[in-house]
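Protein folding task:
====================
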Amino acid sequence: MSTNSIVHIGRWGLLAFMLATWQWGWNLKAPLGQIGLGWLVPTVLDPYFVSKPTLIWNRFLELGCLALPRGGWAWNDPQGFLGCVWSPKGSLWSHTLATLRNTFWGFLVGVSSGVAVGLLLGRSETLARIFEPYIVAFNSLPRVALVPLIIIMFGLGDVSKVVTALTLVFFVVFFNTFEGTRSVDRDLVNAARFLGASDWQVTWTVYVPSALAWVFASLSPAISFALIGVIVGEFIGSERGLGKIIIEAEAQLQIADMMVALIVLMVIGVALVLVFRAIERRLLRWQRHHAERAQN
């Protein structure tokens, strides 16, 4: 059996074991308690705290308008499905779309500004020394603490969520780009200048490719920070979003609804990371370790 087969079997087997333990583990609490082994089942498996996979799946179908609250499947009642999707309260899809949209814009603006400022300060020692104390000061301030101020300034709409996300993303990408720019081989820069390259050409052909690996290394945590920023903003106040589902479920003790939103967030995060890894392998295929991965 190949190593890849063992890895896949191990991954799916572990997932099946965790789901089975989650679904039926708490049911063993009472029987084991009769013989003094109830402590083997942790309290965290109590459905009051984490619900159960079957209950979460049923709520996913209802929140996603795939199963109608009054019973039956959505494809048997198109009007009921459309009414659920476009209801004033919102469906799982409309909330997910709102979170994704704000995450995308916060991530895009944060990455763009982080790369631009990182390249600029990485290439200019004077500018780096001028802005260093301000960057250190702002970076030392917990961005989550700024969320109430951001909401006061920009309101409860999407703009405040985008601003919160980009404040978290910016510094992650900036520091990686800055260090990547500073670590460029000076011999390459001198060779490019010797061949008559202008400052713009040196930046585009030497600094950018060299810093690209550093930038991509920051994208995986950056997308997570973008999601965190949006969700925290939605916690404090929002008309739409997965964070709104979570905070309302917490207030109503609807654990299954909360777990649906958390699992959707996890799936979104994993999918985005996989996309960025694929782009990274494509753009950085000239690097040795990426070329070896592509061959394997």
Q: What stands out?
A: The first helix runs from residue 3 to 24. Residues 1-47 form one domain. The two ends are 17 Å apart (CA to CA).
